[in-house]
Amino acid sequence: MSDSTAYVMGHDDRERRRLGLQASILNPFTDQLFRRAGISSGMHVLDIGCGVGDVSLLVARRVGRYGSVTSVDIDSTALGTLETRASTEGMKNIKCVEANIHGWKAGRTFDAVVGRHILIHSQDPLTVLRDCSGLLHQRGLAVFHEYDFSVVHRGWPSTPLRDRLMDVFDRFFARATCANIGSRLWKLLIDAGFEQPDCRAEYPVSGGPDSTYCEWFAESFRSIAPRAIALGVIAESEFDLDRLEQRLREEAAAGNSCLPAPAMVGAFARLRE
Questions:
Q1: At residue 194, what are phi and psi to the nearest 5 degrees?
Q2: What residue ranges do the domains of the chain occupy?
């Protein structure tokens, strides 16, 4: 998005595939958040940091043919993927824009702005929200879904490797941006000029050796590993990335353990008059 809101997990094909895997797990939760927030037919919605478009597609289905989604990202390849996906699904209500949200001139205002796991990559999330508020109609709606790595339940029976990974995510984002952005959402929205937000924390739980979570956790860890090493969060020798997914599966199989995902906070609020 910019130097101050840089996506810390990269922009390569492997990361885009990881985002698709993640979306298959998280989309039902985000769609439920949009329903609760009131994203509905005919609305014109801005999706910031849209990536390959999983959130944009969710919104496009909700707003229908008389609504629209403007999807903004700095990654032209990801936007190309979104355009292909939208075309395949016959969706003509998505417009892709390669831009940095800071200083972007939309030439219009929107009914709502949405984002998933965007503010956690920002050094200045309050400025991001204030920039977004300036792109909304009067009483416009903001809807954000953000991780909170300060709240991660341990697996049961015990999963020390998986728990160690979650600890690294917490420490990494605490150093790189802010690991507890989910807990900060309520105040951030207030400070950005919105009314008292509706917030809810939740997370999905899977388990066993066949869980897609093993790949999801391993690939997510692979995405942050180079920067985590550079920041001194982990030693380069601590993890074998090529065997990490298999080790997670073996650990889950040994105890038939549950695998809780990191907590997510969903929040929505309207601009104050």
A1: -100, 160
A2: 3-270
